Amino acid sequence: MSDLSIETSHLTKNFGDFTAVNDLTLNVHGTKCVGFLGPNGAGKTTTLKILTAMVHPTSGRVLINGIDVQAHKREALYPCGALIESPEIYPALTPREALSYIAELRGIPASERTGRIKAVLDQVRMADWIDKRTGKFSKGMKQRVNIAASLLPDPDILLLDEPSTGLDPRGMAEVRSIILDLKKQQKLIFMSSHLLGEVADFCDEVAMIDQGKLLIYDTIERVIERVNGGGAAVEIDLASSDLTGVQEKIQGLPGVDHVEHVDTRTFLIRFGGGLPAQERLLSELVAAKIGVISYKPSSGMSRLEDAYLNLIKGGY
Amino acid sequence: MAAPTPTVHEARAPLPTDFTQMTRVTQYELLNYVRSLRFIVLLIITLIIVGALTGVTAYYRPGALLVSGLAFYGTWWAAITALIALCAALFGGDAISGEFQNKTGYFLFAHPVRRSAVFLGKMSAAFLASAVIIAIYAAITVANGWYYTGAPPILFWDSFGFALIYLLGALGFTFLFSSLFKSGAMSIIVTLVLLLFGFALIDELVSALAHVEPWFSIVYGSGIIGDVLTVPYPAHYSSMTVGMGPRAITLSSYHATIPEGIAIILVYAVLGTIAGYLLFRQEDFT
């Protein structure tokens, strides 16, 4: 398989006076999972719609594996599976028929069709509903069938627009597990999401946009480092409620950048350095005898959340 | 410019041609018509119309109707233009607008299929489903006609052919409105109103009072479906004076000639299809 790629070049989309995507240039190459983050109305879905030729760009172009999507949609989307927003399935059709429709449009041979349809419906736990009409399905059930439709061609590239939308917690966990499986199969996954935990858990890289503009695109670690100044954070709980001088004491420890009193007995400590610094800080806190009873390093999600909030707030 | 060759996954089958994809769209659109009861509803309406006609004819045996084959077919077949308008509106009215309004387009268009294949596939499905309804209506008409007046006159088959051409024109017109509106109900209603009443009213006013031939109207063109069953074929232009003295007014009446009627209908079919497709191609899924 040759190098997989998604490229947008000076992509702009105006809806009347409103600019949904603003000169977006983004090059994603290789087999990885890229999270596409941004607040509501940032232009994530519009970008994904342009990537699938559902929306025409005002200017600029998009290439998938080097093929211009607008000029050669069929060829460009041939290796792709896509889920854009939460599509409605033709209500009179069953999942078997709806997926057969897609399979026939994609030329999946009849001999493989039944097996593939069953396999993807199994993957999204909808096999029991294979011959029921989709018109009466809940939003979450339809979304599962939509995910199945995007997986049906065994795509090399997956374009997913908030795939967990409408799913219950179990469904969300299942989607995560599907995406983790797909990651192991050497695919390029480009996924918009507002669930930072989801992105932090299994994306290798993250692209953040706001007001249609790309703010940053890099690995998650480098984004956190660039935006949060390379620091990390821990939250500590203290046994005593007498906190006189404690904040100053912590502030004086080597490597500590900032201390915040977040709750009655809780402090948030931001510090520079990686794991060795974190280990050193723990021993120094214990040595300082301030009564630390718990020590919680911030998770990837909360560090990404910090970076996200800093970027969106600060316009980077 | 030749299309680029996509990256080929070792196990992935090649994409079907545009034409094959179009036939798949037709196939599943027909399945959707049957499943969504749309086809069954139109079939029931058709059977009610021909059932009523069969019952009334059998019971009253009206002399004016049974005097000749042309008189019989001319009367029975008169409802076909209204039936075609119904078929076009119900099968084609929301074919495109529904994809946007109901968000079913999001299911289909994120896949490697051109909008032209979907547009033509849906149009073909609407034509085939409507043609089946028209054929059923024609078959029952011919069965009754054969019983009362013998084999159908050759002119009936001309009329049947014109009806199918009119169906193409009506679908071109309908698909244009379906691409124009984002609401399926709106496109169905506008198409129905125009094809059933709107054009007929405009034709009457323009020809009778303004003395202008309504060559711009598809319904005027569709007049050839009934006119061909009239022997001799109606005069292209006629007029009558109503009233006397200074208050007298002259009312004009026009009948399209057969080449003119076919040309008008085909212009609607071709221009409606092209304009509808161009609108659909430009439309964003927002």
Give a written overview of the molecule:
The complex is a heterodimer of chains A (316) and B (286). By secondary structure, chain A is of the alpha/beta class. Chain A folds into two domains: 5-219, P-loop containing nucleotide triphosphate hydrolases (Rossmann fold, 3-Layer(aba) Sandwich); 229-314, Alpha-Beta Plaits (2-Layer Sandwich). Chain A has eleven helices and 14 strands. Chain A has a six-stranded mixed β-sheet with strand order 6-7-8-3-9-10, sandwiched between helices. A four-stranded antiparallel β-sheet of chain A has the order 2-1-4-5. In chain A, strand 7 (157-161), helix 6 (169-184) and strand 8 form a beta-alpha-beta unit. In chain A, helix 4 (110-123) packs across helix 5 (139-151). With 286 residues, chain B is mainly alpha-helical. Chain B is 69% helix and 4% strand. Chain B is built from 13 helices and two strands; from the N terminus they run ααααααααααααββα. Chain B has helices at 18-35, 38-60, 63-66, 69-76, 80-92, 97-101, 105-108, 115-149, 154-180, 184-209, 218-221, 224-227, 258-282, and strands at residues 237-242, 249-254. A two-stranded antiparallel ribbon of chain B has the order 1-2. Chain B starts with 17 loop residues before the first helix and ends with a helix. The chains are: A alpha/beta (316), B mainly alpha (286).
Features:
heterodimer, A: alpha/beta, Rossmann fold, Alpha-Beta Plaits, four-stranded antiparallel beta sheet, 11 helices, 29% strand, B: 286 residues, mainly alpha, 4% strand
